[in-house]
Amino acid sequence: MSAVPSEPTVLNTTAPSNFAYIDQMELLETLPRVCTVPEVQSELRAGIESYPYLQRALDSLDDAIPVIALDESVTEAATELETRLDPGEAQAFAVADIYDGTLVTDDGPARALARDTDVSVTGSIGVLIRAVDNNQIPEAEADQWLKQWIDKTDYRAPSRNLSDYR
After folding, report:
1. Angle 14-21/38-47 helices, nearest 10 degrees?
2. What angle do CA 46, 52, 54 make, to 5 degrees?
3. How far apart, in whole angstroms, are the C-alpha atoms of residue 165 and residue 83?
4. What Å distances lie between residue 120 and 9, 16, 90, 115, CA to CA?
5. Which of 28, 58, 66, 80 has the smallest number of CB atoms closer than 10 Å to its CB?
6. Cα-based torsion angle of the residue sequence 65, 16, 73, 86 in order, rounded to the nearest 10 degrees
7. Cα–Cα nearest to 91, from 73, 116, 109
8. What is residue 51's DSSP assignment?
């Protein structure tokens, strides 16, 4: 396990799941100071039998996306958050909050809590927009991936077109 980078970009389970589904983990791997937490790794492992594509997400962990060691302050904060968030979200949220980072989640309750507590937050759509803006992918391709998430993974989004989020 790795140490927490300064101002980390912390993934919960939803973004690695989405990007593994479209086989585009490298878009997460290029996020600044990206990392995840042990519980997210556990959640991904637990889902592989039902969702074999999650193996792509696990393959990125440790090599390109460090799984960080949790210190006592993060562990305590995450335990308190587990009354409102699932364990992976709670750990990721606690790291983003304590280390002045950005939480990457598509989970509604985690996003609402982030807004209420001034924790920086983005989601899978935000990662797609960043990739388009950085000329990593064309917007039409990003739109196709968003549509795949909506049509095939029960991803919930108010629009099927990235342009509507700008």
Report:
1. 40
2. 65
3. 31
4. 9, 18, 15, 8
5. 80
6. -160
7. 73
8. -
Cα 81-29-159 angle, rounded to 5 deg = 70
The pLDDT confidence band at residue 1, using thresholds 50, 70 and 90, is: confident
Distance in angstroms (rounded) separating the CA atoms of residues 106 and 120: 13
| Helix ranges restricted to H, the chain | 14-21, 25-29, 38-47, 54-60, 72-81, 87-98, 108-117, 124-133, 139-152
Q: What is the pLDDT of residues 74-100, one digit of tens each?
A: 999 999 999 999 999 999 999 999 999
Alpha carbons 163 and 166: distance in angstroms, whole number:
6
Q: Which residue has the tokens 């700008």?
A: 166
φ/ψ of residue 34, rounded to 5: -70, 145
Residue type, 40: V
Q: pTM to 2 decimals?
A: 0.94
C-beta separation of 140 from 49 below 8 A: no
